Amino acid sequence: GAGVSQSPSNKVTEKGKDVELRCDPISGHTALYWYRQSLGQGLEFLIYFQGNSAPDKSGLPSDRFSAERTGGSVSTLTIQRTQQEDSAVYLCASSLDATYGYTFGSGTRLTVV
Amino acid sequence: DQQVKQNSPSLSVQEGRISILNCDYTNSMFDYFLWYKKYPAEGPTFLISISSIKDKNEDGRFTVFLNKSAKHLSLHIVPSQPGDSAVYFCAVNFGNEKLTFGTGTRLTIIP
Questions:
Q1: Is the pLDDT of residue A1 over 60?
Q2: pLDDT digits (tens, 9 = 90+) for B46-58
Q3: Cα–Cα distances in Å, from B111 out to A45, B13, B42, B80, B84?
């Protein structure tokens, strides 16, 4: 597609439930990133995929968070047993080369109640 | 430790005047610097960038200045327009294939 697509745009879930967030990157972009922005905070790095290399998971805040990227394209971020502190906007981005920046999607606003 | 700091959470500027947003970063050998702009309910969009071999890059109303000795980056917008009201994030590529972002500065242009 023309841009990075994320779904859903909004998600409200009950504490303790699992959620899946989807990202469809720009066609041909080999790198895919997940960030999140909590209220009043900056953009926090979560995970990075590059081609067929092992992902950089150094930003995942706990083992409740996981992500996969199937076929080098679509990615899913899964949060298990959601907690209220997981409430944030989850942003996906893709790029050809991170050096020159990347293109973000519009994000998924997750609210855990 | 690789950090990016934007010490001003908000800034208000009169329309037509200059807006100056600041960013400080920690030391690294391989630096590339970017500014992103974010409107509510949208993802950040790329605005302007500069490599460490330059000290200035200009694109229309936007100019980014890099002071490597001070490890300081600034974005100048002149003249400021109401549509410039947004949150601005400074980002640094420290050479590890991902961007590290600052906490952002909310710019409000007063008509």
A1: no
A2: 999 999 899 999 9
A3: 35, 9, 23, 10, 11
Taking an 8 Å cut-off on Cβ atoms, the answer to whether A4 and B43 are in contact is yes
Q: What is the pLDDT of residues A75-90, one digit of tens each?
A: 999 999 999 999 999 9
Q: Which residue has the tokens 């699992």?
A: A18
- Tens-place pLDDT, residues A28-77: 898 999 999 998 788 999 999 998 888 999 999 999 999 999 887 999 99
Tokens for B45, please give them: 């969009």
CA B107/CA A78 separation, integer angstroms: 33
Confirm or reject contact between A104 and chain B (CB < 8 A).
yes
DSSP string covering A7-19: E-SEEEE-TT--E
Cβ–Cβ contact B101 with A under 8 A? yes
Distance CA A53, CA A64 (A): 22
> Quick one: tokens of B38?
């974010």
Spell out which residues of chain B touch residue A98, defining contact as CB-CB under 8 Å.
Answer: 93, 97-99
Q: Does B1 touch chain A (CB under 8 A)?
A: no
CA A67 to chain centre: 8
Measured CA distances, A61 to A64, A68, A101, A104, B35 (Å): 8, 16, 24, 21, 25
- Return d(Cα B81, Cα A29) in angstroms, integer: 33
